Amino acid sequence: MAKSPKISASHEPGGLIVHISGLLPSLSPAEQRVARLVVADPADAARRTITDLATAAETSEATVIRFCRSVGMEGYPQLRIRLAAEAARRVEPPDARVVGGDIPPGADLAQIIATIAFNDARAVEETAEQLDPAVCEQVVEAIGAAGRIDVYGAGASGFVASDFQQKLHRIGRTAFYFPDVHTALTSAALLGRGDVAVGISHTGTTSDVIEVLEQARARGATTVALTNFPRSPITEVADFVLTTAARETTYRSGAMASRLAQLTVVDCLFVGVAARNRARARKALEATAEAVQSHRVGSGRRRG
Amino acid sequence: MAKSPKISASHEPGGLIVHISGLLPSLSPAEQRVARLVVADPADAARRTITDLATAAETSEATVIRFCRSVGMEGYPQLRIRLAAEAARRVEPPDARVVGGDIPPGADLAQIIATIAFNDARAVEETAEQLDPAVCEQVVEAIGAAGRIDVYGAGASGFVASDFQQKLHRIGRTAFYFPDVHTALTSAALLGRGDVAVGISHTGTTSDVIEVLEQARARGATTVALTNFPRSPITEVADFVLTTAARETTYRSGAMASRLAQLTVVDCLFVGVAARNRARARKALEATAEAVQSHRVGSGRRRG
DNA sequence: CGCCTTCATGAAAGTAAGTTTCATCCGTGG
DNA sequence: CCACGGATGAAACTTACTTTCATGAAGGCG
């Protein structure tokens, strides 16, 4: 059994359900049907026998077993038990409407707000649960020691990349972000051993970002990927993979929740790096805060 | 099949474990051995196969089955999943350190992650709770009907502003964001009745943003402020005020959590606007999604 | 004391669940 | 058009679970 020697791989402590939904797109169609049933109602799945579940997913038992292996379980009984445990742990959601992720056509604003907030908060929490501190540690270490850090991201992930760049910059790390692929590519070509390149892509399939990360890696830089899908193409050009845990819903809410999750991960890395050298980071932060002070009015203290 | 008219079977509320230890003395010696194992470590028992457990209890599988029936379960698999669920439900309370908000100097990465995620999630939830749907409704209405929307923000709030602009743009609303104050001012000067200006500032004291919003208001545009502090200066130049609810902590975590809260609000407004005209929004979203399709690689499916 | 009854128990037979193997099918790229 | 590789389910197979049944220990009674 040759396993891919990825850094993150085996570890899925937080939620199995979360882990499964992350893996969902990397599964074969038949396995996806199984996965969807499992994610939709873990407790129910745990109650079913393998034959039962296979029938419900309109597939064979063999596929269910394959699915078990795909998500890192030994066999069906193991999956069953894990599911039962997960389902039990899970506090029941405040409102059934809210969990689906998508907004019903007739929804009023209050519902919309509740739904979005629920999904956003969940994405943040679940992301934190499944983040591997060991991998984060290594990434923090690499960034803390890097001569230079490039952060790549396109579209919505571009904001996150940019945010990360700004944060690192504020604590005195030399960091860059490029909105333009060509510039990014030329920058990546100038990276070398000891530098770090971070690529952010929700789907993990953004070719621009992958390409740039690949270039950076070829030049000897340490590459880090931040994506929602642990087996997406971007992970193949990354030394370290960090994953978010936004549930797969529609393109709309999925991407939105994912962005918050990405920011949370960025925050964690940032604080980790800052904590590595508190004194210096604090000093840098204070200096930058002071710099914008003249652009603030009054006290800003308020309310009662 | 004729069922034995057993205890009460189907429903033993509180804990199965408690239930079992309750009727332990009424069990036969061999069953008691099984029961003791189960009570001692439910999670472990759930992991074992029936043969395994029987051996461990120095008895036969038949006795284990009898035990299952004695405690009201149908069979061994049922007992197993119930045990797994029970064991999982015994949750450890969330780490007290985590809720405080700030990161202690000696914190390791796992703590940092937990703290940040907790605060981020809380900020999102609390923001949603205190958001006034009526105000949102009016803002959505204004944006939905606007000839043009300007979004202003500086520093970290600039990312949020930019994000909002991009979102509105994607559903076919004419929206602008200006990283530069001068450009923003000139743009604001060109706004008029029916247009909307949104100013984003965590502290509510960012003079650049206030100034621009003021300009927009003077030209007759509807002004919206998004801030964490409901009585800050920015609220004085806004027709509608939306507030986030990030707790006041240190400059670090406060601003970070606030940014997520801001994004949540932006998401809500966005979805609200999109919901106002689903068909059109969906069409626009699909068109934009299609546009970037060629920049994605493969399906993202991988190995097995 | 011997015989009957009751019940706990495990061996073994029987059934169901889970797992592996393999032939087939389908899309992909030469 | 064919070779290739992955996805898939049928069927063979293995393991786990359940039932049946014979045994024997313990208690009651003549």
Describe this structure in words.
2 copies of one chain form a homodimer. The first copy, chain A, has 2 domains: 85 residues, Winged helix-like DNA-binding domain superfamily/Winged helix DNA-binding domain (Arc Repressor Mutant, subunit A); 162 residues, Glucose-6-phosphate isomerase like protein, domain 1 (Rossmann fold, 3-Layer(aba) Sandwich), CATH 3.40.50.10490. The first copy, chain A, is 57% helix and 8% strand. Chain A contains 14 helices and 5 strands. In chain A, helix 2 packs across helix 5 and helix 4 crosses helix 5. The interface between A and B is large, with 90 and 87 residues.
Keywords:
Rossmann fold, five-stranded parallel beta sheet, homodimer, 2 domains, 57% helix, alpha/beta, DNA-binding, disordered C terminus, Arc Repressor Mutant, subunit A
Summarize the structure.
The structure is a homodimer of 304-residue chains. With 304 residues, chain A is an alpha/beta fold. The first copy, chain A, folds into two domains: 16-100, Orthogonal Bundle (Arc Repressor Mutant, subunit A), CATH 1.10.10; 130-291, Rossmann fold.
SSE blueprint:
Two copies of one chain form a homodimer.
Chain A (H helix, E strand, L loop, with lengths): L15 H8 L5 H12 L1 H6 L2 H7 L4 H10 L5 H14 L6 H4 L9 H22 L2 H13 L3 E5 L2 H15 L4 E3 L3 H9 L6 E5 L6 H12 L3 E6 L12 E4 L7 H26 L1 H16 L11
Parallel strand pairs in A: 1-2, 1-3, 3-4, 4-5
Helix pairs in contact in A: 1-2, 2-5, 4-5, 8-13, 9-13, 10-13, 11-12
Chain B binds a DNA duplex (30 and 30 nucleotides) through helix 2, helix 4 and helix 5.
